[in-house]
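G., the chain you wanted modeled:
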Amino acid sequence: MKIGWVLCGSFCTLSKAADAMRAMVAEGHDVTPIFSFAVASTDTRFGTAAGWYRTFEEISGKRPWDTLTAVEPIGPKGLFDVLVVAPCTGATVGRLAAGISDTPATLAVKSHLRGSRPVVAAISTNDALGGSFRSIATLKNTKYMYFVPLRQDDPQKKPNSLVADLSYLPQTVAAAVDGRQWQPLFL
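Predicted structure as tokens:
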């Protein structure tokens, strides 16, 4: 499959996203990385922006797309079979639920959905069961939106935090292409 892969600024999960992308490429999928503004420009204790560019270009063989003009043609040209958003932050979920497409991440999703093609989101946010919950529910009821199964990552210290289990990404993508949500959604 041709997969567009949006990476958002849940910096602590970018290395897991890299592993998941490696696995999908190893299965023979053609993957194009797409960076949110945050991933494209932010250095953190989890890695530098330049390092993430190197990592994802090495995995995919393609320079990550990081501008609005780069991602806008996704829908009109039908560039991908499926769009994966992994990790998908609370900020991105909120923008998508509100219909705001002002970042490469959100415009990529909007453009892809325009063609009635599946989007698979791998939620990773500390406020999933708090401030982002309404937005997640809105997207759950959006046609062509699917979610990688998720769980609380630290119920005692971060009771509102949910993170997708990327080991379920291949099954979730396959189900989404068939128009189904992989179950169970909550682990």
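The chain has a mean pLDDT of 95.

Shout if anything looks off.
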